[in-house]
Specification:
Number of helices: 5
Largest sheet: 9 strands, antiparallel
Distance between the termini: 183 Å
Shape: rod-shaped
Oligomer: single chain
Structural class: alpha+beta
Strand content: 5-15%
Length: 488
């Protein structure tokens, strides 16, 4: 088919129409131009067969030409824009590590932010016990997303340490301390308590004598020292008489025995006198004892015979003088006679010992081992000292009790002579009942008011100038008589 102008016009019109639709702002101008061209062309355009082209205008002569236009086609709709990609769309984009779409899950194989699960992402995934999204290993979730636990090597909440290799860190992740029940370096024991009376002290040292703590069932005491002079020995036994140690302030002595004659009694007291021995050892018998009359003083102890039976006992012998071989010297004279042998028939302590005993005693007794005796104050022992060595050396002595031939007087002053026969008088410490008035101005015959002895008899002396001849004879003038001078 030949292309006519009418066809060209139609094509041109369509082109403009499309152009208008696409260009928008130039549509009006293009439409005007198309319309003019169409009008011009349509006037002369015809088909070859005389058929009028649908776009051509027909008319008669003298009639205005009519223009016929086909309706413009509807523009095609613009295509929908492609949606923007997003996490969760199921497609893995370049900036995504994964994308499972609706299956994304923070606890699954792909998280909600399209990242692969990893320890430290803040989500607890398979194989993780925790995930706190931080690298702090001192909290409840540690490296590897594991819950903190003692032994993991990290000092976590409630732990003081966490190092299995450290001997000072326990398997409970506590610092090694005394009392935790675990034996650590430097500890001798650890029984898990703070009791100081068992075998392990609260210092984790083995209980020992001297640690200051009394171990129950083992020690009787523990004063934390090694002194044996206090109430607790260095063996942690209570101090006691007989242990061999002097308990200061309690014992005067302790010779580790119960012997009373050795200077230390069974009560651990120093034997000051025979009286003190008897007081501490009521069962003590008459014997030779070691006496320390000045106690802690400088004087050395000495042997003395103790009469534990006469008149209640407790008498310390200072002189023994037999009638057959009398010592015969005034008691104030220092004439020690066999002083270290109290059992000797002739015995007299030295004056120093006698002085100590006089000071420690209250009573003095003279007897000849019979019923006749004199008892006065111990302070009278050295009466006559400083006086003349003759029979003018006398003094009135108050006797607490005096007995001769069964006759007794109490608390009575009796004139008494002190100088011995060898010293210029008629007998050391004697009484002449017939000379009381002439010398001392006291009544004669102090016992009965009448003579009971022979005239001028020097009673109670074993070195008499005159023996008693009235039967029964005075004890000290009997054959074999031995006079004892004692203090108590």
């Amino acid at each position: 088919m030949k292309t006519t102008s009418s066809s060209r016009a139609t094509s041109t019109l369509l082109s403009f129409a499309l152009l208008a639709a696409c260009s928008g702002d130039d549509a009006t101008t293009a439409a005007s131009a198309t319309e003019a061209e169409t009008t011009s062309t349509s006037t002369s355009a015809t088909t070859g067969e005389g058929t009028t082209d649908p776009l051509e205008t027909t008319g008669t002569a003298g009639t205005a030409p009519t223009t016929t236009m086909e309706p413009e086609p509807e523009p095609e709709p613009e295509p929908e824009p492609e949606p923007e990609p997003f996490c969760g769309d199921g497609a893995q984009d370049p900036d995504e590590a994964c994308d499972l779409g609706a299956d994304n899950d923070n606890s699954g194989a792909c998280t909600l932010d399209c990242t692969l699960p990893a320890c430290g992402d803040g989500y607890v995934q398979s194989g993780e016990e925790c995930d706190d999204a931080n690298s702090d290993d001192s909290d409840a979730c540690v490296d590897g997303c594991k819950l903190a636990a003692c032994g993991d090597g990290f000092v976590g909440p409630g732990e003081a340490c966490d190092d299995p290799r450290d001997p000072l860190c326990t398997d409970q992740c506590a610092l090694a301390t005394c009392g935790d029940g675990i034996l650590h370096p430097g500890e001798q024991c650890d029984d898990g308590n703070m009791v100081d009376t068992d075998a392990c002290l609260s210092t984790c040292l083995n209980a020992t004598c001297g640690d200051g703590n009394v171990q129950e069932g083992v020690e009787a005491c523990d004063d934390a020292n090694q002194s044996n002079n206090d109430g607790c020995l260095d063996t942690c036994a209570l101090a006691g008489c007989g242990d061999g140690f002097i308990h200061e302030g309690v014992e005067g002595c302790d010779d580790a025995n119960m012997i009373n004659t050795d200077g230390c009694t069974e009560k651990c007291t120093v034997a000051l006198t025979c009286k003190s021995v008897l007081a501490d050892a009521p069962g003590a018998v008459s014997d030779v004892y070691l006496i320390d009359a000045d106690g802690p003083g400088p004087a050395e102890p000495f042997k003395a015979y103790c009469d534990m039976t006469t008149a209640g006992g407790g008498w310390t012998l200072v002189e023994r003088s037999p009638l057959a071989q009398p010592i015969g010297r005034a008691l104030y004279n220092d004439i020690p006679t066999n002083p270290t042998d109290p059992q000797n028939a002739r015995h007299r302590l030295d004056k120093a010992a006698m002085s100590l005993l006089r000071g420690a005693s209250s009573d003095m007794r003279i007897d000849c081992r019979g019923g006749d005796f004199l008892q006065t104050a111990a302070s009278n022992l050295f009466n006559g000292q400083g006086g003349p060595n003759n029979c003018n050396n006398w003094s009135p002595v108050v006797y607490k009790e005096a007995q001769i031939k069964g006759k007794v007087v109490m608390n009575k002053a009796i004139c008494t002579w002190h100088v011995g026969k060898s010293e210029g008088c008629a007998g050391a410490w004697h009484i002449d009942e017939h000379a009381q008035t002439g010398y001392c101005g006291l009544p004669n015959f102090p016992w009965t008011g009448a003579s009971i002895t022979s005239g001028s008899a020097d009673t109670f002396a074993t070195d008499p100038g005159t023996l008693d001849g009235v039967n029964p004879a005075h004890d000290c003038h009997k054959a074999g008589a031995v006079r004892w001078v004692m203090l108590r």
